[in-house]
Amino acid sequence: MRICYIGWADHIHLIRWAQNFIKLGHKILILTPSQGLNKSLNAFTIKIFTRNMRKSLSNIEYLIWSNLFMSNIIHAHWAGFGDTALTSSLGIIPYGITVWGSDIYRLNEFPYESQYRITFGLKNADFVTCDSHDLKKKLISLGITQDKIYIIQWGVDTSIFRPNVNTELLKKELNIPEKANIIFSPRQIAPIYNIETIIKAFAELLKKESNIILIQKYYKTTTERLIQLKEYAKNLGIGNKIRWIGTIPYRNMPLLYSIADIVVSIPFSDSTPMSILEAMACGKPIIASNLPSIKEWIVHGKNGLLVDPMDINTLIFHMLFLLKNKETRALWGKINRLIVLKKASQDVHMRHMEKIYKKLVKTISWKQKMKRFMKYTSKIRKLYAIDFEGGNN
Fold first, then answer.
1. Which domains does the chain have, with CATH numbers?
2. Mean pLDDT of 173-187
3. Taking the alpha carbons of 168, 170, 172, 178 in that order, is the dihedral positive or negative?
């Protein structure tokens, strides 16, 4: 098959997805607004003019429909690209959307015209994928037909993310004291990921347990935000107890999970975070936000601990409990590894996605495509009826 993806080509989620289908023998085209593209992928930078979609689509349609590629299927990653996939398909090429959580859970925060385009693109898609039952319920509440929604995980490469990785060299590089316990916070440092609460809880925890280190990951951020958090930690008097890790090769991420005794992720909003599944695959206990999608993976007191994102006292209590109970950490880590092997294997989920692609490509006949095309003009006219007048940005 020739699969066209529309999304951020510099994001590891889309990169891994595309690489999987290249390995499965398919030809891939990625259309992206991102700069600094991964050179190993067949990616083209596009500019989307929200107030002049015809200007945007001329180049997009050429790439999708040209004899150089001629897509069999179009797949948008993030619902905000769904209307672009719809219009580029001309109603003939099957298209679908993978929602990422922030595009649906935070839909009401978007301008009205964005909400309209997102829901319109979803309702007209041939398939929609999400990574949790809770996110599926949210899609259904928006009027998306249930039988075209599939729960597909991004999936974990369990051959890479595994327990018992040797981390001695990394400990030396990070100047981590011998026998220190390590707490790993793997999320971005954008405000939604609630990093200030983790840092504050860690500062309070140090008053009870001094031989601990916090590793904080950061990427896709501004210098101002990073400086802000470092100053916050410094003002709490714990700057020397935090190791800040920027962008690293994806293949090295298992080292960071493996070095940790506890993994903490307490965002205000989330679907199924890959960081939690990767930590579970590495056999680690989790402290996570008590959000619906996360509860599908973490059962409080059974394989991890859940907390309200702003309940700092409970977060401290949970951290202290796990630090003092090595046997519990080991048991929950083993359980988490088994859960990922059973329910979140990258290979299993990508094979399932491949079957969905093939079914659509095979079952939509040319006669049906012509009928779809006849409906195309009225659908697109309706979609862009809310365009602003004038402007091209």
1. 2-155+346-386 (3.40.50.2000), 168-343 (3.40.50.2000)
2. 94
3. negative
